[in-house]
Specification:
Layout: H1 4-18, E1 25-29, H2 43-47, H3 53-63, E2 67-69, H4 77-82, H5 90-100, H6 108-115, E3 128-132, E4 142-147, H7 149-163, H8 176-188, E5 192-194, H9 198-202, E6 211-216, H10 220-233, H11 251-261
Antiparallel strand pairs: 1-3, 1-4, 2-3, 4-6, 5-6
Helix pairs in contact: 1-10, 7-10
């Protein structure tokens, strides 16, 4: 996609075909803080606080704001680790393990195994800009779609319609939106199905029913072509239930139902 209008059209199509309840998100990793434009909201300046990045995802996808987030705006230890905003010295990592052990890991050995599976952006980016895709003010690197599992299935079907095979899946069950949503998608350059963890649900406002599907921005054309083609072929959301059948009852229930039914059920 060469200009913002292409991303706007992609956002509208995701909303049309998936009927998601919140805006798909365009996420751009800043190359310079000079990318922050007047009108972009900043947690530290406009809200008067530091917060978690997942909170800002929620605000953008429900309020429709465009937000710029830098280390100055963020007090989430894990997000700062994922985006490479903090130096990973010995004391820093020991603090993380102390948090993990007894909560996410039974001992240091299992905590270290978790650490081995964390995707980090290594501090190349001084911040991120989050905007609703259908009217994004920036060209994104990654698109995040908060959705229901059935909607995520439609996106998986759409991608595999074009690419074949299977979508590879791995999950740590935590740091979902920042880690597996942004960092992992950026580093692998592959779409991701993300199980949102406690942070996204406790602080980020994600509902129990929500999951996330992500796509690198340069693969949106592939995703949308597959979405439109599978929709035209009959794979739709909402997924229609098959209703063309005669209902039946277990024998004992049927006998009692007929006695009670009055004229509700026609007797044979």
């Amino acid at each position: 996609m060469k200009d913002l209008s292409g991303f706007h059209e992609a956002g509208r199509k995701f909303e049309q075909y998936l009927r998601v309840s919140t805006f798909p998100l365009a996420v751009r990793l800043m190359r310079s803080e000079e990318e922050i434009q007047p009108g972009f909201k900043r947690p530290s300046k406009d809200l008067g606080l530091q917060n978690f990045v997942c909170q800002n995802f929620k605000m953008v996808r429900t309020y429709g704001w465009t937000m710029a987030v830098t280390p100055e705006d963020t007090n989430c230890h894990l997000a700062r680790l994922v985006y490479g905003w903090d130096e990973q010295d010995k004391d820093y990592m020991e603090t993380g393990h102390k948090f993990n052990i007894g909560l996410y890991a039974k001992d240091m050995e299992t905590s270290l195994k978790l650490e081995e599976n964390i995707f980090r952006l290594e501090g190349k980016y001084p911040g991120l800009i989050i905007s609703p895709l259908a009217r994004t003010k920036v060209a994104p690197d990654v698109v995040l779609i908060y959705c229901l599992p059935a909607q995520a299935a439609r996106l998986i079907q759409s991608y595999l319609y074009m690419k074949g095979g299977a979508l590879e899946f791995s999950s740590t069950g935590r740091i979902g939106s920042c880690h597996e949503g942004v960092a992992k998608t950026m580093l692998t350059q592959k779409p991701q199905f993300v199980v949102l963890g406690n942070g996204d649900r406790v602080w980020g406002g994600a509902q129990d029913s929500e999951v996330m599907f992500t796509c690198p921005a340069d693969q949106l054309d592939i995703m949308l072509e597959g979405l439109e083609a599978t929709h035209a072929a009959g794979l739709r959301y909402p997924i229609p239930s098959y209703m063309n059948y005669a209902p039946g009852f277990q024998a004992d229930f049927k006998e009692k139902a007929l006695e009670r039914a009055g004229g509700t059920i026609i007797k044979e």
